[in-house]
Predict the 3D structure of the following.
Amino acid sequence: MGWSYHNPVRVEFAVGAFARVAAAIAGRPWALVTYPMDLFRELGARLGRDAGPPVATIDDVAANPDFADLGAACRRFGAARPAAGVIVALGGGSVIDAAKVVAASGGDFDRVRAHLLDGAALDERRILPVLAVPTTAGTGSEVTSWATVWDTAGGRKHSLAHPRLYPEAAIVDPALTLAAPRGLTLATGLDALSHALESLWNRNANPVSAELAVAAAREVLAVLPRLLQRPDDIALRTRQAQAALFAGLAFSNTKTALAHNISYDITLARGTPHGIACSFCLPQVMRWAIGGDAACDARLAAIFGADLAAGADRLDAFLRDLGVATDPAAHGLDAAAWSRLIAKASAGERGRNFIGRHDLAAD
Ligand SMILES: NC(=O)c1ccc[n+]([C@@H]2O[C@H](COP(=O)([O-])OP(=O)(O)OC[C@H]3O[C@@H](n4cnc5c(N)ncnc54)[C@H](O)[C@@H]3O)[C@@H](O)[C@H]2O)c1
Ligand SMILES: [Fe+2]
Protein backbone atom coordinates (compact mmCIF):
# COMPACT_ATOMS: atom_id res chain seq x y z
CA MET A 1 0.00 0.00 0.00
CA GLY A 2 1.31 3.46 -0.86
CA TRP A 3 1.56 6.40 1.48
CA SER A 4 2.50 10.08 1.56
CA TYR A 5 3.97 12.35 4.20
CA HIS A 6 3.96 16.15 4.06
CA ASN A 7 5.15 18.86 6.41
CA PRO A 8 6.27 22.21 5.01
CA VAL A 9 7.59 23.78 8.24
CA ARG A 10 11.25 24.83 8.28
CA VAL A 11 12.67 23.69 11.61
CA GLU A 12 15.63 25.31 13.35
CA PHE A 13 16.55 23.44 16.52
CA ALA A 14 19.40 24.46 18.84
CA VAL A 15 20.08 25.64 22.36
CA GLY A 16 20.32 29.37 21.73
CA ALA A 17 18.19 29.27 18.56
CA PHE A 18 16.16 32.20 19.93
CA ALA A 19 18.96 34.43 18.60
CA ARG A 20 17.91 33.41 15.07
CA VAL A 21 14.36 34.74 15.32
CA ALA A 22 15.36 38.26 14.24
CA ALA A 23 16.91 36.90 11.04
CA ALA A 24 13.75 34.87 10.38
CA ILE A 25 11.64 38.06 10.65
CA ALA A 26 13.81 39.26 7.77
CA GLY A 27 12.94 42.95 7.98
CA ARG A 28 9.16 42.48 7.78
CA PRO A 29 6.88 44.46 10.11
CA TRP A 30 6.14 41.95 12.86
CA ALA A 31 3.66 41.36 15.65
CA LEU A 32 4.48 39.63 18.92
CA VAL A 33 2.11 37.20 20.61
CA THR A 34 3.13 36.00 24.08
CA TYR A 35 2.06 35.55 27.72
CA PRO A 36 1.77 38.25 30.40
CA MET A 37 5.00 37.11 32.06
CA ASP A 38 8.15 39.16 32.69
CA LEU A 39 10.34 36.40 31.29
CA PHE A 40 8.64 36.58 27.92
CA ARG A 41 8.19 40.34 27.86
CA GLU A 42 11.97 40.59 28.36
CA LEU A 43 12.63 38.14 25.55
CA GLY A 44 10.24 40.15 23.37
CA ALA A 45 12.17 43.32 24.23
CA ARG A 46 15.43 41.58 23.30
CA LEU A 47 13.93 40.61 19.98
CA GLY A 48 12.79 44.21 19.49
CA ARG A 49 16.36 45.40 19.90
CA ASP A 50 17.53 42.95 17.21
CA ALA A 51 14.63 43.17 14.76
CA GLY A 52 13.22 46.63 15.45
CA PRO A 53 10.11 47.16 17.60
CA PRO A 54 6.99 45.13 16.82
CA VAL A 55 4.06 46.95 15.18
CA ALA A 56 1.69 45.17 17.59
CA THR A 57 2.15 43.36 20.87
CA ILE A 58 -0.40 40.91 22.22
CA ASP A 59 1.10 39.94 25.55
CA ASP A 60 -1.91 38.79 27.52
CA VAL A 61 -2.51 35.28 26.17
CA ALA A 62 -3.93 33.03 28.90
CA ALA A 63 -3.89 29.24 28.95
CA ASN A 64 -6.34 27.73 26.43
CA PRO A 65 -7.24 30.56 23.99
CA ASP A 66 -10.96 31.20 24.33
CA PHE A 67 -13.69 32.88 22.27
CA ALA A 68 -13.99 35.30 25.20
CA ASP A 69 -10.44 36.67 24.77
CA LEU A 70 -9.62 36.38 21.10
CA GLY A 71 -11.79 39.28 19.92
CA ALA A 72 -9.68 41.87 21.70
CA ALA A 73 -6.42 40.23 20.61
CA CYS A 74 -7.46 40.23 16.95
CA ARG A 75 -8.64 43.86 17.14
CA ARG A 76 -5.34 45.02 18.61
CA PHE A 77 -3.52 43.21 15.85
CA GLY A 78 -5.80 44.70 13.18
CA ALA A 79 -5.18 48.24 14.43
CA ALA A 80 -1.41 48.02 13.81
CA ARG A 81 0.04 50.55 11.36
CA PRO A 82 1.91 49.57 9.34
CA ALA A 83 0.15 46.24 9.19
CA ALA A 84 2.17 43.25 10.33
CA GLY A 85 3.65 40.98 7.69
CA VAL A 86 4.62 38.18 10.06
CA ILE A 87 3.63 37.07 13.58
CA VAL A 88 6.12 35.80 16.16
CA ALA A 89 4.48 33.37 18.59
CA LEU A 90 6.67 33.17 21.70
CA GLY A 91 5.05 30.66 24.04
CA GLY A 92 3.51 27.22 24.37
CA GLY A 93 0.50 25.75 22.60
CA SER A 94 -1.85 28.46 23.83
CA VAL A 95 0.30 31.23 22.39
CA ILE A 96 1.04 29.47 19.11
CA ASP A 97 -2.65 28.61 18.66
CA ALA A 98 -3.72 32.17 19.55
CA ALA A 99 -1.18 33.45 17.00
CA LYS A 100 -2.70 31.18 14.33
CA VAL A 101 -6.16 32.58 15.12
CA VAL A 102 -4.82 36.12 14.91
CA ALA A 103 -3.04 35.23 11.65
CA ALA A 104 -6.29 33.98 10.12
CA SER A 105 -8.49 36.78 11.44
CA GLY A 106 -7.40 39.75 9.33
CA GLY A 107 -7.93 41.73 12.54
CA ASP A 108 -11.52 40.59 13.06
CA PHE A 109 -12.16 37.51 15.20
CA ASP A 110 -15.76 37.33 13.94
CA ARG A 111 -14.39 35.97 10.64
CA VAL A 112 -12.76 33.07 12.46
CA ARG A 113 -15.84 32.57 14.63
CA ALA A 114 -18.09 32.44 11.55
CA HIS A 115 -15.72 29.95 9.95
CA LEU A 116 -15.72 27.73 13.04
CA LEU A 117 -19.45 27.92 13.74
CA ASP A 118 -20.99 28.20 10.27
CA GLY A 119 -18.26 27.02 7.92
CA ALA A 120 -17.85 30.47 6.33
CA ALA A 121 -14.75 30.47 4.11
CA LEU A 122 -11.55 32.03 5.42
CA ASP A 123 -9.91 34.59 3.15
CA GLU A 124 -6.79 32.53 2.71
CA ARG A 125 -4.83 35.29 0.94
CA ARG A 126 -4.99 37.23 4.20
CA ILE A 127 -3.60 34.45 6.40
CA LEU A 128 -0.27 35.75 7.67
CA PRO A 129 2.85 33.64 8.26
CA VAL A 130 3.69 32.65 11.83
CA LEU A 131 7.16 32.09 13.26
CA ALA A 132 6.58 29.65 16.12
CA VAL A 133 9.02 29.81 19.03
CA PRO A 134 7.81 27.22 21.57
CA THR A 135 8.49 27.72 25.27
CA THR A 136 6.97 24.37 26.26
CA ALA A 137 7.96 20.91 25.02
CA GLY A 138 4.68 19.26 24.25
CA THR A 139 1.99 20.49 21.93
CA GLY A 140 3.81 20.27 18.60
CA SER A 141 1.71 23.24 17.44
CA GLU A 142 4.92 24.68 15.95
CA VAL A 143 4.66 22.06 13.17
CA THR A 144 0.90 21.56 12.78
CA SER A 145 -1.63 23.37 10.62
CA TRP A 146 -4.34 23.70 13.24
CA ALA A 147 -5.19 25.56 16.40
CA THR A 148 -7.40 24.53 19.29
CA VAL A 149 -9.93 27.27 20.06
CA TRP A 150 -11.93 26.97 23.26
CA ASP A 151 -15.48 28.19 23.80
CA THR A 152 -15.73 27.53 27.52
CA ALA A 153 -19.02 29.41 27.92
CA GLY A 154 -20.53 27.39 25.08
CA GLY A 155 -19.03 24.15 26.43
CA ARG A 156 -17.25 23.39 23.14
CA LYS A 157 -13.80 23.08 21.66
CA HIS A 158 -13.11 23.92 18.03
CA SER A 159 -10.25 23.15 15.71
CA LEU A 160 -9.18 25.90 13.32
CA ALA A 161 -7.44 24.14 10.45
CA HIS A 162 -5.93 25.38 7.22
CA PRO A 163 -2.82 24.38 5.26
CA ARG A 164 -1.63 27.98 5.43
CA LEU A 165 -1.58 27.76 9.21
CA TYR A 166 1.53 25.61 9.16
CA PRO A 167 4.06 28.01 10.67
CA GLU A 168 6.59 29.41 8.23
CA ALA A 169 9.28 28.22 10.63
CA ALA A 170 9.58 26.52 14.01
CA ILE A 171 12.51 27.94 15.92
CA VAL A 172 12.98 25.52 18.81
CA ASP A 173 15.32 26.62 21.60
CA PRO A 174 15.20 24.09 24.47
CA ALA A 175 16.67 26.72 26.80
CA LEU A 176 13.31 28.54 26.66
CA THR A 177 11.73 25.63 28.56
CA LEU A 178 14.17 25.81 31.50
CA ALA A 179 11.84 28.02 33.55
CA ALA A 180 8.83 25.72 33.14
CA PRO A 181 7.60 24.58 36.57
CA ARG A 182 7.10 20.90 37.38
CA GLY A 183 3.37 20.77 36.59
CA LEU A 184 3.85 22.35 33.17
CA THR A 185 6.85 20.14 32.33
CA LEU A 186 4.83 17.08 33.32
CA ALA A 187 1.63 18.00 31.46
CA THR A 188 3.39 19.06 28.27
CA GLY A 189 5.72 16.04 28.35
CA LEU A 190 2.69 13.75 28.58
CA ASP A 191 0.94 15.67 25.80
CA ALA A 192 3.91 14.78 23.57
CA LEU A 193 3.66 11.13 24.61
CA SER A 194 -0.05 11.20 23.81
CA HIS A 195 0.62 12.70 20.36
CA ALA A 196 3.16 9.99 19.61
CA LEU A 197 0.90 7.11 20.67
CA GLU A 198 -2.23 8.62 19.15
CA SER A 199 -0.47 8.93 15.78
CA LEU A 200 0.37 5.20 15.97
CA TRP A 201 -3.09 3.79 16.78
CA ASN A 202 -4.38 5.88 13.95
CA ARG A 203 -5.90 5.09 10.53
CA ASN A 204 -3.76 7.86 8.99
CA ALA A 205 -0.39 6.51 10.19
CA ASN A 206 2.34 6.21 7.57
CA PRO A 207 5.90 4.88 7.82
CA VAL A 208 7.44 8.31 8.37
CA SER A 209 4.95 9.40 11.02
CA ALA A 210 5.34 6.00 12.70
CA GLU A 211 9.15 6.15 12.86
CA LEU A 212 8.95 9.63 14.35
CA ALA A 213 6.28 8.55 16.83
CA VAL A 214 8.16 5.46 18.04
CA ALA A 215 11.32 7.52 18.57
CA ALA A 216 9.35 10.23 20.37
CA ALA A 217 7.47 7.86 22.68
CA ARG A 218 10.61 5.91 23.64
CA GLU A 219 12.39 9.16 24.39
CA VAL A 220 9.61 10.67 26.54
CA LEU A 221 9.36 7.44 28.55
CA ALA A 222 13.13 7.52 29.12
CA VAL A 223 13.61 11.24 29.71
CA LEU A 224 10.53 12.69 31.43
CA PRO A 225 10.95 11.08 34.89
CA ARG A 226 14.61 12.15 34.99
CA LEU A 227 13.80 15.64 33.75
CA LEU A 228 11.26 16.09 36.53
CA GLN A 229 14.06 15.27 39.00
CA ARG A 230 16.58 17.55 37.26
CA PRO A 231 14.63 20.41 35.63
CA ASP A 232 17.77 22.52 35.15
CA ASP A 233 19.51 19.88 33.05
CA ILE A 234 19.70 21.42 29.58
CA ALA A 235 20.67 18.09 27.99
CA LEU A 236 17.42 16.53 29.27
CA ARG A 237 15.42 19.63 28.28
CA THR A 238 16.94 19.31 24.80
CA ARG A 239 16.01 15.64 24.49
CA GLN A 240 12.46 16.34 25.67
CA ALA A 241 12.09 19.26 23.25
CA GLN A 242 13.24 17.11 20.35
CA ALA A 243 10.90 14.28 21.36
CA ALA A 244 7.96 16.71 21.48
CA LEU A 245 8.96 18.04 18.05
CA PHE A 246 9.14 14.52 16.60
CA ALA A 247 5.72 13.70 18.07
CA GLY A 248 4.42 16.92 16.50
CA LEU A 249 5.85 15.98 13.11
CA ALA A 250 4.18 12.57 13.48
CA PHE A 251 0.69 13.73 14.38
CA SER A 252 0.86 16.69 11.96
CA ASN A 253 0.10 14.01 9.35
CA THR A 254 -2.31 11.79 11.24
CA LYS A 255 -4.15 14.08 13.66
CA THR A 256 -4.83 12.64 17.08
CA ALA A 257 -7.26 9.89 18.07
CA LEU A 258 -9.43 8.68 20.93
CA ALA A 259 -7.49 9.89 23.98
CA HIS A 260 -7.52 13.47 22.71
CA ASN A 261 -11.22 13.32 21.96
CA ILE A 262 -11.80 12.06 25.48
CA SER A 263 -9.78 14.96 26.89
CA TYR A 264 -11.66 17.99 25.63
CA ASP A 265 -14.84 17.62 27.72
CA ILE A 266 -12.71 17.01 30.81
CA THR A 267 -10.73 20.20 30.26
CA LEU A 268 -13.93 22.13 29.55
CA ALA A 269 -15.66 20.81 32.68
CA ARG A 270 -12.78 20.90 35.15
CA GLY A 271 -9.97 23.00 33.67
CA THR A 272 -7.70 19.94 33.72
CA PRO A 273 -4.46 20.83 31.87
CA HIS A 274 -4.59 19.51 28.31
CA GLY A 275 -1.55 17.24 28.72
CA ILE A 276 -3.04 15.49 31.76
CA ALA A 277 -6.52 15.20 30.25
CA CYS A 278 -5.18 13.56 27.07
CA SER A 279 -2.78 11.15 28.79
CA PHE A 280 -4.39 9.67 31.92
CA CYS A 281 -6.42 7.26 29.77
CA LEU A 282 -3.54 6.20 27.47
CA PRO A 283 -3.09 2.77 29.16
CA GLN A 284 -6.80 2.01 28.70
CA VAL A 285 -6.83 3.28 25.11
CA MET A 286 -3.71 1.19 24.43
CA ARG A 287 -5.50 -1.94 25.70
CA TRP A 288 -8.31 -1.20 23.22
CA ALA A 289 -5.77 -0.63 20.42
CA ILE A 290 -3.91 -3.93 20.88
CA GLY A 291 -4.85 -6.38 18.14
CA GLY A 292 -6.57 -3.73 16.03
CA ASP A 293 -3.83 -3.53 13.42
CA ALA A 294 -0.70 -5.66 12.97
CA ALA A 295 1.53 -2.75 11.93
CA CYS A 296 0.42 -0.75 14.95
CA ASP A 297 1.07 -3.70 17.25
CA ALA A 298 4.61 -4.03 15.86
CA ARG A 299 5.28 -0.34 16.43
CA LEU A 300 3.89 -0.48 19.97
CA ALA A 301 6.16 -3.50 20.56
CA ALA A 302 9.14 -1.37 19.50
CA ILE A 303 8.23 0.95 22.39
CA PHE A 304 6.87 -1.39 25.06
CA GLY A 305 8.31 -4.82 24.21
CA ALA A 306 6.57 -7.85 22.71
CA ASP A 307 4.08 -8.36 25.56
CA LEU A 308 1.78 -5.44 24.81
CA ALA A 309 -0.66 -6.14 27.64
CA ALA A 310 2.24 -5.97 30.10
CA GLY A 311 3.37 -2.80 28.29
CA ALA A 312 0.00 -1.15 28.92
CA ASP A 313 0.32 -2.06 32.60
CA ARG A 314 3.81 -0.52 32.67
CA LEU A 315 2.44 2.64 31.04
CA ASP A 316 -0.17 2.75 33.78
CA ALA A 317 2.53 2.48 36.44
CA PHE A 318 4.66 5.10 34.64
CA LEU A 319 1.83 7.62 34.85
CA ARG A 320 0.95 6.80 38.46
CA ASP A 321 4.61 7.10 39.48
CA LEU A 322 4.58 10.62 38.02
CA GLY A 323 1.51 11.44 40.10
CA VAL A 324 -1.11 11.12 37.34
CA ALA A 325 -4.15 9.09 38.39
CA THR A 326 -5.22 6.75 35.57
CA ASP A 327 -8.65 6.02 37.00
CA PRO A 328 -11.43 8.05 35.30
CA ALA A 329 -13.05 8.56 38.73
CA ALA A 330 -10.08 10.71 39.75
CA HIS A 331 -10.98 12.98 36.83
CA GLY A 332 -14.59 13.37 37.89
CA LEU A 333 -16.05 10.52 35.82
CA ASP A 334 -18.06 7.74 37.43
CA ALA A 335 -18.62 4.53 35.45
CA ALA A 336 -21.72 5.82 33.66
CA ALA A 337 -20.16 9.18 32.76
CA TRP A 338 -17.02 7.41 31.52
CA SER A 339 -19.08 5.12 29.23
CA ARG A 340 -20.99 8.09 27.85
CA LEU A 341 -17.76 9.99 27.22
CA ILE A 342 -16.14 7.01 25.44
CA ALA A 343 -19.17 6.61 23.19
CA LYS A 344 -19.16 10.32 22.34
CA ALA A 345 -15.39 10.47 21.87
CA SER A 346 -15.37 7.38 19.63
CA ALA A 347 -17.96 8.91 17.34
CA GLY A 348 -16.11 12.22 16.93
CA GLU A 349 -13.72 12.99 14.08
CA ARG A 350 -10.56 12.28 16.09
CA GLY A 351 -12.16 9.23 17.69
CA ARG A 352 -12.89 7.76 14.26
CA ASN A 353 -9.15 7.86 13.52
CA PHE A 354 -8.68 5.23 16.23
CA ILE A 355 -7.81 1.74 14.93
CA GLY A 356 -8.95 0.01 18.13
CA ARG A 357 -12.22 -1.76 18.78
CA HIS A 358 -14.92 0.88 19.19
CA ASP A 359 -17.41 -1.73 20.31
CA LEU A 360 -15.11 -2.56 23.20
CA ALA A 361 -14.45 1.14 23.68
CA ALA A 362 -18.16 1.70 24.16
CA ASP A 363 -18.42 -1.02 26.83
N1 LIG B 1 -2.36 23.17 17.75
C1 LIG B 1 -1.99 21.97 18.17
O1 LIG B 1 -1.54 21.17 17.37
C2 LIG B 1 -2.12 21.64 19.64
C3 LIG B 1 -1.71 20.38 20.10
C4 LIG B 1 -1.84 20.09 21.46
C5 LIG B 1 -2.32 21.06 22.34
N2 LIG B 1 -2.73 22.27 21.86
C6 LIG B 1 -3.27 23.30 22.76
O2 LIG B 1 -2.19 23.90 23.44
C7 LIG B 1 -2.65 24.40 24.70
C8 LIG B 1 -1.73 23.96 25.80
O3 LIG B 1 -0.43 24.46 25.53
P1 LIG B 1 0.78 24.19 26.54
O4 LIG B 1 0.57 22.88 27.17
O5 LIG B 1 2.02 24.42 25.78
O6 LIG B 1 0.61 25.25 27.69
P2 LIG B 1 0.10 26.78 27.62
O7 LIG B 1 0.62 27.44 26.40
O8 LIG B 1 -1.36 26.79 27.88
O9 LIG B 1 0.88 27.38 28.88
C9 LIG B 1 0.39 27.19 30.20
C10 LIG B 1 1.01 28.23 31.10
O10 LIG B 1 2.39 27.95 31.24
C11 LIG B 1 3.15 29.15 31.35
N3 LIG B 1 4.41 28.95 30.62
C12 LIG B 1 4.55 28.62 29.29
N4 LIG B 1 5.86 28.45 28.99
C13 LIG B 1 6.54 28.67 30.13
C14 LIG B 1 7.94 28.62 30.45
N5 LIG B 1 8.87 28.28 29.55
N6 LIG B 1 8.32 28.93 31.71
C15 LIG B 1 7.40 29.24 32.65
N7 LIG B 1 6.06 29.29 32.41
C16 LIG B 1 5.65 29.02 31.16
C17 LIG B 1 2.29 30.28 30.85
O11 LIG B 1 2.09 31.16 31.91
C18 LIG B 1 0.95 29.64 30.50
O12 LIG B 1 -0.13 30.35 31.01
C19 LIG B 1 -4.07 23.89 24.89
O13 LIG B 1 -4.99 24.91 24.61
C20 LIG B 1 -4.15 22.77 23.87
O14 LIG B 1 -5.46 22.56 23.40
C21 LIG B 1 -2.63 22.56 20.55
FE1 LIG C 1 -2.34 17.41 22.60
The chain has two domains: 10-175, 182-361.
